[in-house]
Amino acid sequence: MSQAAVTDQHLMLFGTITQCFAQHEVLMQEIMAAVSGADVTSIRLLTGGLSVTQRRDALFNLLRHRAVPFNQVDQIRNYLQILQTYNALRHDIAHATWTEGKPKNSIRPLWLSHGPIAAIKPVHDTDGDTKPFIEDDDDKATYALDDLREIGVNLTKNCAEFRAYLTKVDLMSTPAA
Q1: Could you tell me the pTM of the whole model?
Q2: Of 51, 70, 100, 128, which one is least surrounded by beta carbons within 10 A?
Q3: pLDDT tens digits along 82-108
Q4: Structural domain includes residue 175
Q5: Which range marks the domain in which residue 85 is found?
Q6: End-to-end Cα distance, the chain
């Protein structure tokens, strides 16, 4: 990690984004507890080692099994979509070192500077359909402070609205003592 590239502000925003993911995951666990009749601590123990995607999948499997109304499931899916949108960023925050990006005053995960600049084109078209060739795009993983700030604000707002919705439809578990 380049000391000049990653500032205290970046680290603060990384923390905000990571904490927002954790808050969304807690809400998923609380829904699972409420819908299943289990206590939150048991659900946390059962799902603690799962990724965000695995936790979301477990939640939707449970919601289908417990016959939660479709409109509620759709609304929950809408609130959780933001996690899919920013999951690659959260992964990079947790598992990558960061360096200066382009444009100036932006940062990017260091893994972008290793390996080939572009993906390898397929030699054969095995299924008879032409597949699109997509080159690596550094811009998709390069973030200015304003980008990270906006993502943090969006995640925070979504979490608050999600919690309010769950309270309104009574899908919140009573917190374990």
Answers
A1: 0.80
A2: 128
A3: 999 999 999 999 999 999 888 888 999
A4: no
A5: 8-96+146-168
A6: 41
